[in-house]
């Protein structure tokens, strides 16, 4: 469980997040949604300790994030950044192997290699494992970065727009993996723009707007016409198709 208390963050001296108090449950998939510029990536980066809060607290399983030593944090939390810079002269397997670094410190054991292969297989990258990243398509690169995150096997998984560049079959595969990770007891937080996907996979939803929490609660409550129309300042319809909620704008 990750909890934030009155969290605020400033970037270049400008307040970007204000008074964020959320509780992101363990063993659940939380979707972070909201318009461009709402502060979703900033929140995710702050939870991952890549940005420092101006004030407020972040607690992971009741423990102050500031008190967690870096090595321990690397074993506990992994993050897919929205704009991750990756070295082009690395193969997919090299990149995914970096995910094992906090465990292996550069000396991969047989168990580490198995985890690397498993992550590669889960992301449907077996045919690309020995290819250099700069020879891959956008979606293949994105999948390689997700595989690196999964190989870390952390209790907390933060994914910023993991579906960017993915075709619909691979998007589904990634959301199923996120679901499996949550079902295995991990705290999974995913930034999503596709609200139909959020409705289908998330247990818990945090809706952000202009640096604040606009709504937080069970997916059925937050993925509603009223909340979403207000959030995006545009008419949003939520229809039922085959027993599932589908979010539409016309
Ligand atoms: N380095 C920076 N300095 C100043 N302002 C910044 C900086 N980085 C981001 N911002 C601003 O902070 C706000 C939140 O940005 P953030 O990237 O968290 O939004 P987001 O919700 O992830 O949006 P998107 O859906 O477009 O990814 C935006 O208004 C953005 O312009
Ligand atoms: Mg973002």
UniProtKB/TrEMBL annotation:
SMART domains membership: AAA
Keywords noted in UniProt: ATP-binding, Cell membrane, Ion transport, Iron, Iron transport, Membrane, Nucleotide-binding, Transport
Signal peptide: none
Domain of life from the UniProt record: Bacteria
Topology within the bilayer: Peripheral membrane protein
Family matches, as Pfam families: ABC_tran
CDD domains cross-referenced by the UniProt entry: ABC_Iron-Siderophores_B12_Hemin (cd03214)
Gene Ontology molecular functions: ATP binding
Principal location listed in the UniProt entry: membrane
The keyword NAD belongs to this UniProt entry's keyword annotation: no
Residue intervals of the ABC transporter domain: 2-235
Places the protein is found: Cell membrane
Protein name: ATP-binding cassette domain-containing protein
Organism this protein belongs to: Pseudodonghicola flavimaris
């Amino acid at each position: 469980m990750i909890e934030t208390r009155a969290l605020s963050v400033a970037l270049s001296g400008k307040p970007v997040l204000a008074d964020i108090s959320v509780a992101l449950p363990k063993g659940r998939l939380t979707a972070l949604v909201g318009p461009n510029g709402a502060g979703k990536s900033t929140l995710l980066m702050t939870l991952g300790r890549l940005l420092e809060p101006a004030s407020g607290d972040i607690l992971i399983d009741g423990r102050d994030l500031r008190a967690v030593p870096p090595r321990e944090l690397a074993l506990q939390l992994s993050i897919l950044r929205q704009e991750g810079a990756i070295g082009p002269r690395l193969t997919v397997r090299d990149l995914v192997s970096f995910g094992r670094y906090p465990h292996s410190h550069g000396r991969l054991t047989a168990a580490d290699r198995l985890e690397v292969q498993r992550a590669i297989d889960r992301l449907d990258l077996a045919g690309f494992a020995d290819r250099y990243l700069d020879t891959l398509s956008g979606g293949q690169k994105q999948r390689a970065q997700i595989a690196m995150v999964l190989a870390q096997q952390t209790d907390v998984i933060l994914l910023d727009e993991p579906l960017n560049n993915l075709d619909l079959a691979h998007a589904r595969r990634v959301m199923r993996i996120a679901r499996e990770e949550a079902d295995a007891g991990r705290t999974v937080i995913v930034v999503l723009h596709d609200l139909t996907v959020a409705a289908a996979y998330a247990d818990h939803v945090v809706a952000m707007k202009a640096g604040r929490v606009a709504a937080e609660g069970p997916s059925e409550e937050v993925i509603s016409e009223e909340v979403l129309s207000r959030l995006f300042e545009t008419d949003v319809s939520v229809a039922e198709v085959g027993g599932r909620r589908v979010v539409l704008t016309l």
